[in-house]
Amino acid sequence: MAMSDNAREEIRNLRDQVNQLMEDRVSPAFSDASKRAGEAATRARAYTEDSAEMVSERVRDQPLIAIGVAAAVGFLFGRVTK
Fold first, then answer.
1. pLDDT number for residue 3
2. Which of 32, 31, 7, 11 is nearest to 19 (CA)?
3. CA-CA-CA-CA torsion for 8, 9, 12, 13, nearest 10 degrees?
4. What's 57's DSSP letter?
5. Domain count along the chain
6. Long-range pairs for 72-77: beta carbons < 8 A, 24 or more residues apart
7. C-alpha angle 5/9/12, rounded to 5°?
8. What is the pLDDT of residues 51-79, one digit of tens each?
């Protein structure tokens, strides 16, 4: 029975060490990665919104050029996909 008690105690110690490692190392790393991903998503969204606004302004300022570019892209896309 002494071996069984020792084995249980060793397993309990290992489990405590793993839990401590998770709290000390893994959880903060995941938290930091999550924070960075959120910041990157915010920057990407702002960039996309700024780009869309810039394109909208260009189309409003030069509608004939925008129509010409759209027609050219459509023509090329149609030729490539045939």
1. 63
2. 11
3. -150
4. H
5. 1
6. none
7. 140
8. 999 999 999 999 999 999 999 999 999 99
Residue 70: domain span: 2-81
Give the CA dihedral 23, 26, 28, 32, nearest 10 degrees: -170
Looking at residue 24, the DSSP 8-state letter turns out to be: I
Tens of pLDDT, residue by residue over 4-40, are 878 888 888 899 888 888 888 878 888 888 899 999 9
Check residue 53 and give its pLDDT: 94
- In angstroms, the CA 44 to CA 50 distance is 10
Q: Which two tokens stand for residue 74?
A: 């459509």
Judge whether 77 and 70 are in contact, CB under 8 Å.
no
Query: How many CB atoms are located within 10 Å of the residue 50 CB?
Result: 10
